[in-house]
Design goal:
Shape: elongated
Number of domains: 2
CATH class of the largest domain: Mainly Alpha
Distance between the termini: 31 Å
Radius of gyration: 27 Å
Number of strands: 3
Order of helices and strands: HHHHHHHHHHHHHHHHHHHHEEHEH
Number of helices: 22
Strand order of the largest sheet: 2-1-3
């Protein structure tokens, strides 16, 4: 059943437009570079650009916060990387990137750690500041160029520089409609995107191979309007390099959304296909990671229709595999209370675990967070009881007697809907009903959910109050029957 609530919550509304910096920083996604498939000289190259003595105690403190208990651990990580860049400690940045690359390190919950390195390197400003000036971007790009010049073998520096040009291009593009961008603006966007592509092509020739290179290149593909088949080739190449690096799948899935030229359902089919290819719990984890990547679910009218059941299953499997992430807890609680068919039971369970570790990037304000907690606490017991009754009704229907009874019950119930269709006119969607039938066919209890259900509910209440023998006697009493009916079947009746 779908229980609604009133709340101003939105999962980073700014992500609706696909802001590159936000896509990298929101809720602890991650990125990593690898030495896999590199030249025989990779180990020597890595050693030459890494120096553990470059990491200070202050750096270590910011990079080693525990995400399982501190919801600000990722933000601390990002701020540390940002500070190291402002201080132009390029050797230290390379060391952090190389260390995470070599160890394939993840945060608790499964996010790849080096994403947060790129998050700290993707924009001249960090949360809660979201807008940078042209001067900020130009100074930021010059700083990254100095890193590339000082350490030409650093793949991290080049990918970060490419991201900076893409972010600067997006800054020019803005969140408005395409027709709001001037011709001069489009020229700058094309120039900056082309420069990002050039830098990425240079980076690809380096000995170290980086999965995030492909994520950045997919932004290039989106900005330049590549053919979908060409983009798919890019994704498959990335997937061969590192199949578990879900950010590439998320980037391609996002490019398949209708607002970026794909067809309705393409994103959902792709995510399911890739997850099924992995299979089992790892496939469910991958589905959860991709489907919940910022930029796909936008808390708007055009959300892709992902499977909430599989998202929840993948979340639980990710905790078993990678441990607890306070950011994942915030994310799954938000989705349970804002996405698709709201799940008050799941939201209440997770919100209890979150305690005071709420995340500003997810909820925006504590008022929004507290509103969801209140809603979940109110509805969770009701929904839990509802599920028990539905399970009983479904068990009844699995018996031969139950299947037969449902057919005769539905005939009588449909008569009520036909009457309501004539009275109130056409409605849309599915009407979900749950009815307890007494020994003589009387209505003992009734639940009706969905658009246009008031008329039906009132008629059922009248039958209950009058003790009318409205339905055939059930196999036993009380007997719960679940019946879902499509209003579209009754539209011709309503039109008469």
């Amino acid at each position: 059943m779908n229980f609604t609530r009133n709340s101003s919550c939105s999962l980073n509304a700014a992500v609706k437009g696909g802001s590159l910096a936000l896509l990298l920083t929101v809720i602890g996604g991650s990125v990593a570079c690898y030495a896999r498939h590199a030249s025989p000289n990779t180990a020597a190259d890595l050693k030459s650009i890494s120096n553990s003595r470059s990491i200070s105690d202050e750096d270590a403190a910011g990079l080693n916060e525990d995400l399982s208990s501190n919801v600000h651990a990722v933000r601390d990580y990002v701020n540390t990387i940002e500070r190291m860049l402002k201080e132009e400690r390029f050797d230290a940045l390379d060391y952090v990137a190389d260390h995470a690359r070599a160890g394939k390190e993840r945060f608790p919950g499964g996010a790849w750690k080096l994403h947060t390195v790129y998050a700290g390197l993707s924009s001249p400003v960090q949360f809660p500041v979201t807008h940078a000036t042209d001067e900020d971007w130009e100074e930021f790009i010059q700083q990254l160029q100095r890193w590339v010049s000082a350490r030409p073998k650093s793949v991290t520096a080049r990918v970060a520089l490419a991201y900076a040009y893409l972010g600067y291009a997006y800054k020019t593009r803005g969140d408005g409609d395409a027709n709001t961008v001037s011709e001069g603006g489009w020229k700058l966007i094309r120039q900056r995107t082309a420069e990002a592509q050039r830098i990425l092509e240079e980076a690809k020739a380096l000995p170290l191979k980086c999965p995030e290179w492909y994520v950045a290149m997919q932004f290039v593909a989106q900005y330049q309007g590549w053919d979908a088949n060409k983009e798919r080739v890019l994704f498959e190449e990335a997937n061969r390099l590192e199949p578990g690096y879900y950010y590439n799948a998320a980037a391609f899935a996002r490019n398949l959304l209708p607002e970026f030229g794909g067809k309705a359902g393409d994103t959902e089919k792709f995510v399911e296909l890739v997850s099924d290819r992995i299979g089992g719990e790892p496939g469910d984890i991958f589905y959860f990671q991709v489907a919940t990547t910022p930029g796909l679910i936008c808390n708007c009218d055009h959300n892709p229709n992902f499977s909430w059941e599989r998202i929840e299953r993948g979340f639980e499997a990710s905790e078993k595999q990678y441990g607890v992430s306070t950011l994942n807890l915030n994310r799954i609680a938000f989705l349970a209370s804002n996405y698709g068919r709201l799940d008050a039971v799941a939201a209440d369970k997770v919100l209890t675990r979150i305690g005071d570790q709420w995340n500003e990037e997810t909820w925006e304000t504590q008022k929004d967070f507290d509103s969801v907690k209140q809603w979940a606490a109110q509805w969770a017991p009701i929904v839990a009881k509802q599920r028990v009754l539905e399970a009983e009704a479904e068990a009844n229907m699995r018996t031969p007697a139950g299947s037969s009874y449902k057919a005769s019950f539905a005939t009588k119930y449909r008569e009520l809907l036909q009457q309501c269709a004539l009275i109130q006119g056409p409605s849309e969607g599915i009407l979900e009903t749950l009815t307890s039938v007494g020994a003589n066919g009387t209505v003992e209890d009734v639940r009706v959910y969905g658009s246009g259900g008031v008329c039906v509910y009132q008629k059922m209440l009248a039958l209950q109050g009058n003790r009318t023998k409205a339905f055939p006697p059930p196999p036993q009493a009380p007997y719960w029957v679940k019946l879902d009916l499509d209003w579209a079947e009754f539209a011709p009746v309503a039109a008469k």
